[in-house]
Write the structure tokens for this entry.
Amino acid sequence: MEMMCDKEFGIYKQTRSALKEAKKIPNPNFVFILTASPDKLQKHIADRGRIFEKGVWKDYLQTLSNVVDNFQEELDINIPSFRIDTGVNDLLDHSFFENSKDEIETFLGFKVNV
């Protein structure tokens, strides 16, 4: 997979700038952030076997991970966030939600049905 060309990077910069300027758009009350290590992401990519994902570089995945880690600071917003490491927690496994129910409810401030 190649890095972004100048045109794509220009579109990215315009979008990022528009998001920074979008003060009229209300922030969400909270956000769930799903993370995984680049190694785990590469394993997921290999397991899916999608041809168009085969060329994804580990450095690129690390860069994306860094962007996710810093997105709130980059956008200069303060939104409560709940991070879930999908490299450790399988969200398709119902027991994750059962085991995390109390922590999620504390974060949200209300009861949830699992």
Observations:
- The beta strands are 31-35, 81-85.
- The first helix runs from residue 6 to 21.
